Amino acid sequence: MKYDLGYMALIFALPAFLPQVYKLYKDNDSSSFSSNTVLLFWMAQLFWIIHGIQNNDNIILSGATINILCFSYIIYKLYNNNELNFYFI
């Protein structure tokens, strides 16, 4: 029997990030997030979604969609808290 390890990776990776988003929701403290990092990760997830669609890869598409929703929420909170700064050094 062949197992798709991508689903296992998805099961372990998603719960690892969601508590951070929940903490942000509960505390409304976005000061610990780097705007550069969050925006770049958001862009990366967008390209992963495109890649998942092009290759009909539901694992990548599922993970990237959930991640981009989480990163979108973080960007929203950074913006509302006037902490969204994007600098290229």
From the structure above, extract its key features.
89 residues, mainly alpha, Monooxygenase
Q: Supply the number of structural domains.
A: 1
Our Rg estimate from Cα atoms comes to 15 Å
Query: CA-to-CA gap between the ends?
Result: 50 Å
Biggest sheet overview: none
Order of helices and strands: HHH
Tell me how many strands there are. Answer: 0
Overall pLDDT, averaged? 88
Helix/strand-derived category reads: mainly alpha
CATH architecture: Up-down Bundle
Beta content comes to under 5%
Description:
Helix content is 74%, strand content 0%. By secondary structure, it is an all-alpha fold. It has one domain (5-80): Up-down Bundle (Monooxygenase), CATH 1.20.1280. Helix 1 (5-27) packs parallel to helix 3 (58-80) and helix 2 (35-54) runs antiparallel to helix 3 (58-80). The longest helix has 23 residues, at 5-27.
How are the SSEs ordered, and which strands pair?
Elements: H1 5-27, H2 35-54, H3 58-80
Helix pairs in contact: 1-3, 2-3
Short description, anyone?
By secondary structure, this protein is mostly helical.
